Amino acid sequence: MDSSDLNVIRALQDWVRAGGRGHLVTVVKTWGSSPRPAGSLLAVGGPGHLMGSVSGGCVEDDLVARLRSGQVASERPERVVYGVSREEGERFGLPCGGTLELVCESIDDAEALEPVRQALEQRRAVCRELDLNTGTTRLLPAQPHTAACRLQDSLLRKVFGPQWQLIIIGAAELSRCIAQLAQALDYHVVVCDPRADYAATWDVPGTELVAGLPDDLIRARVSDERSAIITLTHDPRVDDMALIEALESPAFYVGALGSRRTTDARLERLRQLDVPATALARLHAPIGLPIGSHAPMEIAVAIAAELIAARNNALGGARDRLADPAARKAASAA
């Protein structure tokens, strides 16, 4: 699956190459409750040509009308703010007093976006810098811990490409489904499987395959909280060595596939291997939100949903899910 940013850039290029003119809109800041986070994109072309979203509803209707009529960003990039007053927030449907700051820029050269498109297709992270005073742009390397989108003075910096990493232990059918969903969520996906037969069948484009030992990979590649690790092999010899390393890492999410019985047995093995209770409390197992899923893609959706919640701090950080019987009814069974 392609990321939403890639779909926006491709659509905008297509419209401009067909002889039209388009606008690229970026959410740069929000206050209060806002439907879309900073960094979200909207491409605006002629009638019937919209891709992406920065808010939805009345805000986008008003913005599109102003862009197409030339009221906004007709010559150089322009900042637009919605929801400053309570009346305006109610008028444009911004919830709970939310305020939305956007940067709008006119695009008349499709080739200027080509390096961004190529980086997205190759799943490389790049930072695009836009000078609001001049309209000039340049690409910079995306540094670790770079904010997804930041407007400072007259410079807008927006990171395109994966800013998060998902390490999947195991290269089976469920792994394929999760990898595709994770790519659409702008993760760089690394699949690790030391079992030659499984590694040989891996064929998901845009992912990275590592045929070595998972604990070595985690030590080498997980250095901050922008990583998630999930184990899916059902083989304790593989999963356990990965979990021992993962639970002591700074990864924001560590999950393991398996039923309640499998989870209990796994926890006992890890205790015997002297994994601290504080580390075990970080484990999301059984993995995934409890939505009663059984087919591989359904299970993948449940896992992706839990990843989203964890990444957005919706779960309140590490928790002992195993103490909650309802949470044990995960999206998968051993």
Verbal overview:
The protein is α/β, with parallel strands linked by helices. The chain folds into two domains: 4-160, no CATH class; 164-328, 3-Layer(aba) Sandwich (Rossmann fold), CATH 3.40.50. The protein contains twelve helices and 15 strands. The chain has helices spanning 4-17, 57-68, 86-91, 114-121, 173-184, 196-199, 214-221, 236-246, 260-272, 277-280, 296-311, 325-328, and strands spanning 22-31, 41-44, 50-52, 78-82, 99-107, 126-131, 137-141, 149-152, 155-160, 164-169, 187-192, 208-210, 227-231, 253-256, 283-284. It has a six-stranded parallel beta sheet with strand order 12-11-10-13-14-15, with helices on both faces. Strands 3-2-1-5-4 form a five-stranded antiparallel beta sheet. α1 (4-17) packs antiparallel against α4 (114-121), α5 (173-184) crosses α11 (296-311) and α7 packs parallel to α8. The chain starts with a helix and ends in a 6-residue tail after the last helix. The relative contact order is 0.09. Mean pLDDT is 87; it is low at 314-334.
- Measured on Cα atoms, how large is the radius of gyration? 22 Å
Instruction: Provide the spatial order of strands within the biggest beta sheet.
Output: 12-11-10-13-14-15
N-to-C span: 27 Å
Task: List the uncertain runs.
Answer: 314-334
Largest sheet: 6 strands, parallel
- Give the oligomeric state of the chains in this entry, treating copies of one chain as homo and distinct chains as hetero: single chain
Class of the largest domain in CATH? Alpha Beta
Question: How much helix, percentage-wise, in residues?
Answer: 25-40%
Count of beta strands: 15
Number of domains: 2
Apparent shape: elongated
H/I helix tally: 12
**CATH superfamily annotation of the largest domain:** NAD(P)-binding Rossmann-like Domain
- Run of helices and strands: HEEEHEHEHEEEEEHEHEHEHEHHEHH
Mean of residue pLDDT values: 87
β-sheet strand percentage: 15-25%
Within the CATH hierarchy, at the fold level, what is the topology of the largest domain? Answer: Rossmann fold
